[in-house]
């Protein structure tokens, strides 16, 4: 949700900013801008993608060894040139890029207007930059003091970088709620919302904590908090490589990430399943295992695709751990005054580790005394730092806005947790425990088989690319897969799609079924198999078009459905990991055939750092 990049050093800043913004474009892409600081400050901003900005700016005066840049996902004010960042204060003293929301901006704006300030945009960011300037000019203090004074009065979330016309050699950065990473080079510093714009220059980074303020010149970094207490910078080595952020010959990141799943799932369980496949070891939650195994209730909080993974987790935890589970949308949970007890365990699932609602939900649950476990992909992100314990998914960087490999890695972690807790609580006997672990380790090779049928699946996509609606049905732990399949289709192809528990179809969606309605049914062999066969018959009786995901060799459904996509036989608890992949492939190809921007679907952002 908005990407920030900044540079202070000896190199030309502009190419670093543009390249960095392109890497961060997944965080927002409705407008972009840069400000270069040399003899003065030159700002260029444009509605549209970073490429539009580059086409507009590259032949102008883009010199300077200090600069700040931003790619925007609109919150306050529509996407246009004037609402794009950077924003400069009325008297030209400060220029600011900001990610987050200033909640009390209206009040501050009113006061500033009373003091004669005029505004060019509708953004909360322009209010903040003018607020800083007003303190600077009225109190005649240093830029850093003005920034800290303003930030101590604002309510809301920010990751920001600001330059001051009178202190041209420095940049000031601050964070609260929105991520910011400093890259440490030789006589240079980089700043970005995540490490991807930094890694080709340095692998030494400092993750800012909430309320940190960093003052950077090319040779010096001072870290403080808003109250002016000095902080010791903790330099860490990042594990990200450039290869991971390239498309590696694929047309889109989403397709690359779909194909990476055999590897990413393997990376998720590597080192966590013993070589003889008899034990699961999740080191990150070892300290909270007693709490987890004795929990009265597990509450899973998440948003979007991560919520779907959590719902798969609910089925598996209840089946094996035999602990009651509630899966909550973080945004609802945090505002509902939920009943949370000290023997509850809250599991927060988040690819980015930065989703504002999920972060707020766990902070609230932590205050009420629950034990908090995180399942996150981005190492060092905010959620893992707020939790008592956690498991990283290790899926590797996910750039496509529609989540694919992060989902299967989250499900892999939840599956391991369910088996492990089930075993520890004595619900799983040795033989079944070992069989389940073995089944899980077979997923990567089974996915390779499914991925080989991509062309066949693409042929099916071709037949349904012009659909206006689609229905996805599943039962048990395949119901969340239906939800996820529908979400993938609507996110990237803009076809309206709904996921439903297959039996619930009779209570409403069946009225929509006619010969134009594709119905995707996830119908692998499990204990509900006979029931879902009946559901398919109900769809066919109303002339619906059935595309069924089935276990290989299933002749019964083949004779009923319009198309079947086979997946290798597996234990039913493993089926979510296999069956979701054909649905990802279908959505991808339908979106490409419809000419949609697959990696950057309209209105969406990868990381939603505002509530
Ligand atoms: C956004 C993304 C989704 C993601 C959701 C939750 O909506 O577009 O792909 O599932 O946020 O994000 P998280 O990083 O918390 O998993």
CATH homologous superfamily descriptor of the largest domain: Aminohydrolase, N-terminal nucleophile (Ntn) domain
| CATH architecture descriptor text of the largest domain | 4-Layer Sandwich
How many E strands?
24
How much of the polypeptide forms β-strand, as a percent range? 15-25%
**Shape label:** globular
Provide the helix percentage: 25-40%
What is the count of structural domains?
3
User: What is the CATH class designation of the largest domain?
Assistant: Alpha Beta
Distance between the termini: 11 Å
The fold-level CATH name of the largest domain is Glutamine Phosphoribosylpyrophosphate, subunit 1, domain 1
The overall average pLDDT, rounded, is 94
Compute the number of helices. Answer: 20
Strand order of the largest sheet: 3-2-4-1-10-9-11-14
Secondary-structure-derived class: alpha/beta
Radius of gyration: 25 Å
Low-confidence stretches: none
Subunit structure: Homodimer.
Catalytic activity: D-fructose 6-phosphate + L-glutamine = D-glucosamine 6-phosphate + L-glutamate
GO molecular function, one term: carbohydrate derivative binding
Active site: 2, 606
């Amino acid at each position: 949700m908005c990407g920030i990049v900044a540079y202070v050093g000896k190199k030309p800043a502009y190419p670093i900013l543009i390249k960095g913004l392109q890497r961060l474009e997944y965080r927002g892409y409705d407008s972009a801008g840069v400000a270069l600081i040399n003899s003065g400050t030159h700002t260029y901003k444009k509605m549209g993608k970073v490429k539009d900005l580059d086409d507009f700016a590259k032949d102008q005066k883009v010199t300077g060894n200090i600069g700040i840049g931003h790619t925007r996902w609109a919150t306050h004010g529509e996407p246009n040139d004037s609402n794009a960042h950077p924003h400069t204060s009325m008297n030209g003293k400060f220029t600011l890029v900001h990610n987050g929301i200033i909640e009390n901006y209206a009040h501050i704006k009113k006061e500033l207007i009373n003091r004669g300030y005029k505004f060019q945009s509708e953004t909360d960011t322009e209010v903040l930059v003018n607020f800083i300037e007003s303190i600077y000019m009225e109190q005649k203090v240093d830029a850093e003091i003005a920034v800290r004074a303003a930030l101590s009065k604002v309510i809301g979330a920010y990751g920001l970088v600001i330059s001051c016309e009178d202190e041209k050699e420095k940049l000031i950065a601050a964070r609260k709620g929105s991520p910011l990473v400093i890259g440490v080079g030789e006589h240079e510093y980089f700043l970005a919302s995540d490490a991807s714009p930094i890694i080709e220059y340095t692998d030494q980074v400092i993750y800012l904590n909430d309320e940190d303020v960093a003052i950077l010149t090319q040779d010096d970094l001072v870290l403080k908090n808003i109250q002016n207490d000095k902080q010791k910078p903790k330099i860490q080595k990042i594990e990200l490589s450039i290869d991971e952020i390239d498309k590696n010959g694929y047309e889109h990141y989403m397709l690359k990430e779909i194909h990476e799943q055999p590897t990413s799932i393997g990376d998720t369980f590597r080192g966590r399943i013993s070589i003889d496949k008899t034990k699961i070891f999740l080191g990150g939650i070892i300290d909270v295992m007693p709490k987890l195994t004795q929990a009265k209730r597990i509450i899973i909080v998440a948003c979007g695709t991560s919520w779907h993974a959590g719902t798969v987790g609910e089925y598996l935890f209840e089946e094996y751990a035999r602990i009651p589970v509630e899966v909550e949308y973080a945004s609802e949970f945090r505002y509902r005054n939920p009943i949370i007890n000290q023997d509850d365990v809250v599991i927060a699932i988040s690819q980015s580790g930065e989703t504002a609602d999920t972060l707020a939900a766990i902070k609230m649950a932590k205050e009420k005394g629950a034990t908090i476990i995180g399942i996150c992909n981005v190492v060092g992100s905010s959620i893992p730092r707020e939790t008592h314990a956690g498991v990283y998914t290790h899926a590797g960087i996910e750039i496509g806005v529609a989540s694919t490999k992060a989902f299967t890695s989250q499900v892999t972690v939840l599956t391991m947790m369910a088996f492990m807790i089930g075993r520890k609580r004595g619900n799983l006997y040795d033989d079944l425990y070992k069989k389940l672990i073995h089944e899980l380790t077979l997923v990567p090779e089974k996915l390779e088989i499914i991925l080989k049928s991509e062309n066949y699946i693409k042929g099916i996509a071709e037949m349904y690319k012009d659909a206006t609606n689609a229905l996805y049905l599943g039962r048990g732990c395949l119901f969340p897969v239906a939800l996820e399949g529908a979400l993938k289709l609507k996110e990237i192809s803009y076809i309206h799609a709904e996921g439903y528990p297959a039996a619930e179809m009779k209570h409403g969606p069946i009225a929509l079924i006619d010969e134009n309605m594709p119905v995707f049914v996830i119908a692998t062999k499990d204990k509900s198999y006979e029931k879902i066969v009946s559901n398919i018959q109900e769809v066919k009786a109303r002339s619906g078009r059935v595309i069924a995901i089935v276990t290989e060799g299933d002749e019964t459904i083949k004779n009923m459905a319009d198309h079947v996509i086979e997946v290798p036989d597996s234990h039913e608890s493993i089926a979510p990991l296999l069956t979701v992949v054909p649905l990802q492939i279908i959505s991808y190809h339908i979106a490409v055939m419809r000419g949609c921007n697959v990696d950057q679907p309209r209105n969406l952002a990868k990381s939603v750092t505002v509530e």
